[in-house]
Design a protein that fits this description.
The chain is α+β, with helices and mostly antiparallel strands. It has 3 helices and 10 strands, in the order αβββαββββαβββ. The chain is elongated.
Length: 184
């Protein structure tokens, strides 16, 4: 169960404007699916002929672009292109949504919901964020940040994953077993 991964993150602890003043963002806060919604999906997967599969969005946040005010960043020396050699303090515009930015979760959730809807899913209700039902297939989908879980019969699940993978880069779906560190 141990896979070591690394990631480059935006240093959200040092956000300043051009005058060196601290910047405060209006953080709206993304709304991931609730634990109750996860258990609801689990119960659907226990129906005869149904099951639950899980998949992860690969490098989720960077699948969309940063929005809002322009954000300038300093890259560590080892990431700077050779053409920057000799520059005193080079900076560049951050265009990709990057983990650590105060609004990154919001941008990812908006992007994800748009792509989920393009794949034929619609929100179940307003009180359960990030829970969807497919418009034509008998599928239910739950999204918790970058973790996707889908309940339904095997043939429909395969079509549902295929539809999602046209819009979001996902890992190969696997039958449920462990979700958010809990064995089902």
């Amino acid at each position: 169960l141990r896979i070591h991964k690394g990631r480059i993150v935006f240093g959200g602890n040092q956000i300043r404007n051009e005058r060196g003043q601290w910047i405060i963002y209006d953080e709206l806060g993304a709304s991931p699916a609730t634990a109750e919604a996860g258990r609801f999906l689990d119960s659907l997967g226990l129906q005869p002929g149904w099951d639950v599969e899980c998949s992860d969005a690969e490098s989720a946040y960077t699948q969309t672009y940063l929005q809002g005010p322009t954000t300038w960043v300093r890259l560590p020396k080892w990431l700077q292109p050779k053409s920057w050699e000799g520059m005193k303090d080079p900076i560049c515009i951050l265009s990709k949504n990057l983990y650590g930015h105060p609004l990154a979760g919001n941008y990812w959730q908006e992007h994800c919901e748009e792509k989920v809807k393009l794949a034929g899913f619609e929100r179940v209700c307003g009180t359960w964020p990030s829970v969807y039902k497919h418009k034509t297939m008998n599928l239910h989908l739950l999204v918790y940040v970058d973790d996707f879980r889908m309940a339904g019969v095997a043939a429909d699940r395969a079509k549902g994953w295929e539809a999602l993978q046209k819009h979001i880069t996902l890992s190969k779906p696997e039958l449920w077993g462990r979700y958010l560190g809990v064995h089902s």
